[in-house]
Description:
The chain is of the alpha+beta class. It contains 1 helix and 4 strands. It has one helix at about 40-55, and strands at about 1-10, 15-20, 80-85, 90-95.
Amino acid sequence: xxxxxxTMTAFGPYKDREVVDFTNLEENRLFVISGKTGAGKTTIFxxxxxxxxxxxxxxxxxDFKMLRSDFADDDLHTSVELVFELNGKQYRVLRQLGHVKxxxxxxxxxxMNSIK
Length: 116
């Protein structure tokens, strides 16, 4: 399997949409994903594993709530799309994670003053 493009939305540390374009690797079959601690390297592997298998790459990431970005807007759905090539054919996998919207605590109804 050769990854072509990985699109993660509201996934892991990514608040919005993050695209990893593997086509820049051209025909290189071996590559390194490097960066500082917390840069999102493991999130790339989590995204690929989530798209293919429905779970993240490590045992400590089995709680689906951990996969959704804490910074994402409530109306933005968490999803991962992976396009990959296998035996000369391209495949597309899209997996979306359900989430519960945060409750905004504010007074309900209209405020009324009654004078008699």
